[in-house]
Automatic annotation (TrEMBL):
GO cellular component: cytosol
InterPro entries, sorted: RidA, RutC-like_sf, YjgF/YER057c/UK114
Protein name (Swiss-Prot/TrEMBL): RidA family protein
Sample GO molecular function, one term: deaminase activity
Family membership: Belongs to the RutC family.
Membrane spanning stretches: none
Family matches, as CDD domains: YjgF_YER057c_UK114_family
Amino acid sequence: MPNSVVYSAQAPAPIGPYSQAVQAGNTVYVSGQIALDSETGQLVGGGDVAQETHQVMRNLQAVLQAAGLTLRDVVKCSIFVKDLGNFGVINDIYGSYFTADYAPARETVEVSRLPKDVQVEISCIAVK
């Protein structure tokens, strides 16, 4: 079965040569999402990590929905943060989108810089 590109108008368009997500068989690989508003293309939150994290999660949900999936189908997330000092806020918000009975595997990594100088970027892998 060939790979297929997943696209959602409800999530920000890619800002480089990549797809929002790619489906390979029953697995969907969602590219890292940042806090961009899909309608305006502008960053959400003005540097507020809580607002950014909520927007990132909404963007992930939109891409997953375009693939016919939900957060319950996510098996792995990768979280990239500019400052691990914000981990508590990001973790609490991230955790509000999952419950213990279906929380995916994940890692959280501090990086020196993210696209458009955002505070957080999250990617995920989901299985149908």
